[in-house]
């Protein structure tokens, strides 16, 4: 194995990142070293790249970026008895304490002491990466690495879509960014009908159709509430899934939801949101879910099984594949411009 490797590193507290050569790390106690087979860009990586306010408060350069991954264990650190060389793994990014009130109630997804892999420590945009063994998820050998790498964000989408009944239910999805596109794939695989998607970007509306959306709406050109009412014979949708983080989309989605319907909110809003709670939620008796991270480890079982079922239409979601990291700046800029679905790197060029 090589002693040096390329890695995309946040080297400075400023916009961008650099492709640098660093030592291949050694796994410490409780850790394994993986050969990274595939790694995908998350919106969080983009925030770190852009160096937004959140990144400035959380990230401590220099640090290797990236957290969505599929890799092969090539070295096992002291004390690890759950993994061995040759295991094919992905990584749950939330490193939970196991000791707080939430963890003691098996609500690991809301652990109050969560550290995030690739955010609070070095990540996986490199040829090799250190992974805490307690956060490894073993993949079946025949799962393509680009699908295996998507399991972590797919977990967000699965928890959003499957927070309540979905089969045969009319569904509105607001936002067809990478997460919303994964949400469409999960909703269609789970039997939702019709799946109506509201998304201003024409490129992403086209992707939404390819993934399986039954109707797409441009909310900047037509009123999504009226469009939903027309499609549902005036009833409104049974299920509203918010994937955009746009306050307007939240309000429109709540208006378009049928009384007694279900709402799952994944998108993060840039500021406080003002809403007519009485008329949009309380008098409509909506069932509202906030969604964060993934349930450990139930969601991983669901995600893995959905992929293995062959029913998840993931190929149209993966719009860009790169061998090596040489063109990483192009990849980040395309994603910033909203001209991608998921972007996947295959670090080893051979
Ligand atoms: N809760 C969690 O654990 C969690 C985890 C991951 C991501 N997120 C959040 O989920 C959201 C989606 O992530 P992403 O990576 O796909 O983000 P993204 O920014 O790439 O996608 C958002 C999409 O919403 C669209 N949009 C903007 N205004 C809209 C409107 N008025 N109506 C409908 N669509 C609109 C945008 O064009 C874009 O395509 C983000 O807010 C992200 O922060 C939350
Ligand atoms: C780490 C973050 O980007 C991730 N998608 C989560 O589930 O929290
Ligand atoms: Zn992420
Ligand atoms: Zn905890």
Find the count of extended strands (DSSP E, 2+ residues).
Answer: 18
What ligands can be seen in this structure?
Answer: nicotinamide-adenine-dinucleotide, threonine, zinc ion
- Integer average pLDDT: 98
Give the N-terminus to C-terminus distance in angstroms: 14 Å
Q: Provide the CATH architecture of the largest domain.
A: Alpha-Beta Complex
The CATH class label of the largest domain is Alpha Beta
Let me know the CATH homologous superfamily of the largest domain: Medium-chain alcohol dehydrogenases, catalytic domain
Helical segment count: 12
Kindly name the structural category.
alpha/beta
Could you name the CATH topology of the largest domain? Quinone Oxidoreductase, Chain A, domain 1
List the quaternary state of the chains: single chain
Helix content: 25-40%
Q: Secondary-structure element sequence?
A: EEEHHEEEEHEEEHHEHEHEHEHEHEHEHE
Give start-end ranges of low-pLDDT stretches.
Answer: none
Strand content: 25-35%
Q: Shape from CA axes?
A: globular
Number of domains: 2
Largest sheet: 7 strands, mixed
**Alpha-carbon Rg, integer:** 20 Å
Binding site for Zn(2+) 2: 97, 100, 103, 111
Binding site for NAD(+): 179, 199, 204, 266-268, 291-292
Family: Belongs to the zinc-containing alcohol dehydrogenase family.
GO molecular function: amino acid binding; L-threonine 3-dehydrogenase activity; NAD+ binding; zinc ion binding
């Amino acid at each position: 194995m090589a002693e040096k490797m390329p890695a995309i590193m946040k080297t400075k507290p400023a916009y961008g990142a650099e492709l640098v050569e660093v030592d291949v790390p050694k796994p410490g106690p409780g850790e394994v070293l993986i050969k990274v087979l595939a790694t995908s860009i998350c919106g969080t990586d983009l925030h770190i790249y852009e160096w937004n306010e959140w990144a400035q408060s959380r990230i401590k350069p220099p640090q290797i970026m990236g957290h969505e991954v599929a890799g092969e264990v090539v070295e096992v650190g002291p004390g690890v008895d759950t993994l061995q060389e040759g295991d094919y793994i992905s990584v749950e990014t939330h490193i939970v304490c196991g000791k707080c009130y939430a963890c003691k109630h098996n609500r690991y997804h809301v652990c109050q002491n969560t550290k995030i892999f690739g955010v609070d420590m070095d990540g996986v945009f490199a040829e090799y990466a250190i992974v805490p063994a307690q956060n490894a998820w073993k993949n079946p050998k025949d799962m393509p690495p680009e699908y295996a790498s998507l399991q972590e964000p797919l977990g967000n989408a699965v928890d959003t879509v499957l927070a309540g009944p979905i089969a045969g239910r009319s569904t509105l999805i607001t936002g067809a960014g990478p997460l919303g596109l994964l949400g469409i794939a999960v909703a269609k695989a789970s039997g939702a009908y019709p799946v109506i998607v509201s998304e201003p970007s024409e490129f992403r509306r086209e992707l939404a159709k390819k993934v399986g959306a039954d109707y797409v709406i441009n909310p900047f050109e037509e009123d999504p509430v009226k469009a939903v009412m027309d499609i549902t014979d005036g009833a409104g949708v049974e299920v509203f899934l918010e994937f955009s983080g746009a306050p307007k989309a939240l309000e429109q989605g709540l208006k378009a939801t049928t009384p007694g319907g279900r709402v799952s909110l994944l998108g993060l809003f840039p500021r406080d949101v003002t809403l007519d709670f009485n008329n949009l939620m309380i008098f409509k008796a909506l069932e509202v879910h906030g969604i964060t991270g993934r349930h450990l480890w139930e969601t991983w079982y669901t995600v893995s099984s959905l992929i293995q079922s062959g029913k998840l239409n993931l190929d149209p979601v993966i719009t860009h594949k790169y061998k090596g990291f040489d063109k990483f700046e192009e990849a980040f800029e395309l994603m910033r411009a909203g001209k991608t679905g998921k972007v996947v790197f295959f670090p080893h060029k051979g």
